[in-house]
Request: fold
Amino acid sequence: MEILDQIKQNSIHRAEQIAIVCGEDTISYRELHDRIEYLSYIIEQKLPHSNEAIAIISERSIEFIIGMLAVLNTGNYYIPIEKPIPEDRVNYILTNSRVKIVLSDCDDCFENIININIKTIFENSEMISYCGSKKDMTRIAYAIYTSGTTGKPKGAKIRYESLCNLIKALGTIFGEESQYSNVAVVASFSFDSSIKQIYGSLYYGRRLIIAQKKDKIIGRKLVSFFERNNVELTDITPSYLEIIMSSKRIPCVKRYLVGGEKVKSTLVKQFTEYIADYLDISLFNMYGPTECCVDVAVHEIDFDNDLKDTYVPVGKALENVELEIYNHSGIVKNNSVQGELYVFGIQVGDGYIEDVKENANFINLNGRKCYKTGDIAFYNENGNIVVLGRQDEQIKIHGNRVELGEIESAINSIIGADKSCVIFDENKQKIICFLTQNVNRKDIVAELKNIVPAYMCPQKYIEVQELPITTSGKIDKKGLYDYYITI
Reply:
């Protein structure tokens, strides 16, 4: 059964059961369905055509999720934009995606765009039976904007059938309802790592609990949030595992869906020692590019056998997904031979919005559509895939995907010349910016916050007399990194 139909069934069979919790706010499955229907009706009155882009610009809230589901219900696709976010970035996304409607939590005005305030729209809402036509499964469901190599974010388009496949394929992870009835979503709604918790929880009839920003600041607060809500399953990045361990407390969570960054064996070893007396805790290593609907592989970490190598395996492909590794000799069949990981199957997305150059990673290989991930991987002795890292300058920091070139473009636009270079310290999870000495660093720091999100702002600035150049005429980033680790 597809997602929207299953949520409708839940509104009948679990009518008064709490569906979503956000702080003090709650909503039942019956109320959730009624509001989805009402907002769907309002959207269709203002936008009778389908397959159009609708942006959701709001703080984390129940209404944000109602907006997502209502947009799907009308046959359109949504672009999630969680506040706070720089105004320039919002304006670029709205223009690039040709958004027709904005669902927001205030009365903001956007030129030539219809605004619907999802905080007030339900105050006098009536119960409406929305009778939209049966929608095409191959239509676009959502578009997630990620960092782009061109210096601008790019919107990855994902089909509804891909989303439905993901949620059904993760059914065994969500387990029996009596086991994992309370599901937390920690990740930002702007990023695809939140999707499996939101849709998985509502599809399988669980209680979805939204972690607010104040709950995620430090480990102690995050653990308190888990305990207060009796959370049994949650998404988490490796960085958050470290935050939890810093709290010196064992949360009540039974299943952690770990993703967004490579999972190092050393970190898992530390965590297993931390939870040594709690044998019913499971960690699942989740892997997938945004372009292929969140996750394409999953692996339940074996604490005894999976920690021999530097990185924990990402396992094997989800149902209706194929993963293959290619190098200069063609497809890789043997263990330990490295190559680039390719994704095939139902979860390969529909490319990017208005971005022909970036769409080059979507190719047709022997009659099969696939996505070239840019990740270097190999098969281990058990046939599981291990991902080593990127072959380009794309990184992940605290679960957020970032192109270093976009940061450089933003900084250079402030300077007015190519006088910066950005590198990434993976061990310390820090973005480092090198600047020539004749640049005013304070001005850059102040202005950069208005162009890119906070997680893309460098944590350290280093002044150099000039940026070193390689023999090919490019900035010598390896030389800068070698200099960085010596100071």
The CA atoms of residues 22 and 210 lie 5 Å apart. The mean pLDDT is 91.
